[in-house]
Queue: 3 jobs
Job 1
Amino acid sequence: MEELKEKVSGSSTSVSRDDVRKTIMELEIAFRRIEDSFSELERSINALALIRLTEKQQSILKWLCGNSEQNTVYTRMIEAVSKEFKIPESTARWNLKVLREVALLEAGDRNNKGIPVRLTEAGRIALEQQLGVRSLPTRDEISES
C-alpha cells in the first residue's frame, strides 16, 4: 500500500498511461481485499448474533435500537430494561453486560462514566442482517445530511 501511495503522490510530472492503469488496477485489488475483510467480519458478527445471543438478549438489542435516542447511561438503562421486560435488575444487568462484552453495544464503565448506551457498528450489522431490524442511521449517515 505504501508503494501505491508513493506512485500516486510521486513528484514526477511525467506519468505514463500504463503506469496510471497499473496503479488503478493495484488500487482495485487492494480495495477488493479490504472489502473481503469486511465481508468476513460481517459473517463473524452474524454468526455471533445467532449462536451466542439468547432470545432475551436479541429482544433487548432490538428494543435498544428503538430507544437509543434517549442517551441513557448504563445504570439507568439497567433500570429501563428491567421495567420494560419485567425482569429483575440483576438479570437486566447480566444481559446488558453480555451485549457489551460481545461488542454489540457501548456504554460507560467505572473508568468512563456518563457515556450513554448505544449500539456499535457490530450491533447495527447484527440487527440488520440476522434479526431483520433496520437500525438507526450511522454517525456517517447523520453527518452527511
Job 2
Amino acid sequence: MHRVLRVLLFALGLAARPAVAIDPGLVERLAFGESNEKVDAVGVLVASGDEGAPSFLQALADGAVQTAGRRVLIVAGDEGFDAVTGEKIRPLPGDREDVVVNNRLRREIDSALGALRLVSPDRGTRLKAAKADVFLADAHLPDYVALHKEYVAQKLCHAVITYGARGSERQAAEALGRENVSYILSAVWWNAGASSGKPFGEAFKAKYQRSPEWYQALGYETARALLTAVRKAGSADREAVREQLGKLEMDSILPGGRLWFQGHQAHYPFVVQQNQPDGSSPIVYPRELAQIPGTAPNPRCVSGAFAQHVP
C-alpha cells in the first residue's frame, strides 16, 4: 500500500517535470536486475517524468519486452524497437529472451500505470483510471452537453451520475440522444410532477405548446413573490420591500406548496429527479414527493453493477 501511494505521489509531479529520454540504466535494471531492483526501478521511472514511461511499462506488462545480448527490445510481431533509442529493429535477432515479470513486479507495474493514467492530460483516461462508482460534476447547460458528449464518446458508465442541476434539459436529449442521458440525476428547484406545480405546468404548456422546465417556473415564482412583497409594502422602496419579503409566506407552485424566507433565503423542498428512457424526469427524492423510486446502479452499465463502460 505504501509503495502504491509513493508511486502515485511520484506521478502527481509529472506535470511539472520536463520530458527526458529513458535512462538506459533504468531500462537495464528493469530488464536484467533482480526482483528488488526491478521494483525500485519502476518507481524511479515513473518519477522521472519520461513520456515513454507508460508505453514501456505497458510493454513489460504485456510481455513484449525482450533482450538480445545486452540490448533491450520492445517487440511487436516480426519487428521491434530499441527500448532506449527507439531505433527500429528488423529483422529481429534470433537469440532473444523474454524479460521475466513475476507477480510482485506485475503488481507494481499495474499500480504505476494506474497512477500515470490518473494524471493523464486526457480527461477520459483520468476518469477511467479513477474507477469510481459515482460521477459528480457541476456545469452550466452548454458545458453539461459538451462534457457528457465526451463522456458518451469514451463509453464511460458509473453507478450514479449527476451534473448538479443539469440533466433533464430537452436540448441535451436532442443533442446526445435520449438513451445517452437516461438515469442521470439532477437536483432542481421545481418539477411539474409535484402537485403544487401541475397547474403552472399545464397553463405554460397550453400557452407555449411545450412543457416548462425549472428555469421558467423559478422566474415566474420570483416575479410573483416580488410583486406580492411590493403590494404589501405599498411602494417599491427597497427596504420596505425587503422587510415584506422577510415576512412573506405564501402558497406557491414550488415543491411543498409553500414559500417563505428566513435569513434572506427561500425555504421550500429541493427535489431530485432522474431521467427515464421514455424521456420523462420524475421526482425520486424526497420520499414524500417522489413519483417513482430512484434507479441505482445505472442499468446501462455492463459487466457488473459498477462497471465503467457501456457496449
Job 3
Amino acid sequence: MRTLAFWQLAGTFMTCGFSMSLISSHGVPMLTDHGYAPVLASSVLGILGGSSILTTMMLGAASDRFGRRPVLASIYAGRSLVFAGFFLIRDNPAAIIAVALIGGITIAGTMSMTSALTADIYGRHSVGGILGVIFLAHQVGAATGTWLGGALFDSTGGYGAAFAIAGTVLVTASVVSLHIDDGSRSSAGSRVPPAQEAQEAEKGPSAECGALAWTLNVRDYARVQPRAPPASGTLSLLRAERAHRSLRLAAAQRRDDASRAARPPPHLAGLRGLKAPPARDGALVDAHRRAFAAHAAPPHLDPHEHSCGP
C-alpha cells in the first residue's frame, strides 16, 4: 500500500465498480424514463452482458500484443462512450441495441487486466493478497454508485448528473491506466527489477518446491521431496540457490554410497570369481553353501536370493 501503482490500480478499479453498479441498478429505470419499453430496456442490459462474454475472450491476446495498460485504458474509455450512448440516444431501439452489442467488450475486461497488471508489478506470489484489497476498493465503488445514482435522482429528478459523473471518472481512469507506475515497492527502494523477479519466480519455486528433475535423476528426485515454501511473498534467489546446492550434494552422496555398497571389500574381492562347491548330500555341503554365500555375496544383497548350486 506504500506504492503508487497500488493506488492507481485500486482507484481505477473503484471506478469500474462505480460505473457497473450504476448501470446495473439504474440502467433499466433510466431507459424507461427515456421512452423505451421495460422489456426492451431490460433486454438491452442482457445483450450488453451477453456480448461481453464473447468479446472479453479476445482481451488476453490483445493485451499480450499491445500491453496491459493500453488495453485497460481503452476499456475505460470505451465504457465512457457506452454510458454516453445509453443516456443520449432516445427513441431509437436499433441504435441502443447496437451500442449494447459493441459495448460488451468494455464491461468485463477490467478484472482480467487489473489482475494481470498486479502480477506483472508485484509478482505472481503476491497477487492473491494485493488483488483482494484492490477488489475491496471495487466493492466500495459499487456501493457508492448504487447509492449516489438514487440520491441524485431524488435531488435532481433524473439520471443526467449520475451518468455525467460516471463518464468523467471513466475518462480519468482511462488516463491513469496509461501511466500505472512500475516504480519501487516501498519508499526504501527495495523493488526487484522485473527481469530479476521473473528469474526468481522460475528458479525459486523449482528449487524449493522440489522441481529439480533437470539436475537430479528420477530416483534421487523421488527420494528428496522438500516441503513447499509459504505462498506469500516472492522467493529469495539466495534461498533457492542454497536449496539447490544442498539437494545436489545429497544426490551425489547417495550415488557414492550406492557405488561403494556395490563393491565388495578388498579382502573378499577375489571370492566373486570363485565357483560354488559341487552339490553333495549331507550337512557338510549345506555348511559349504552357507559359508560361500555369506562371504561371496555383496553386503547389500540377500544371500538367499542367489543360488550357489552348480
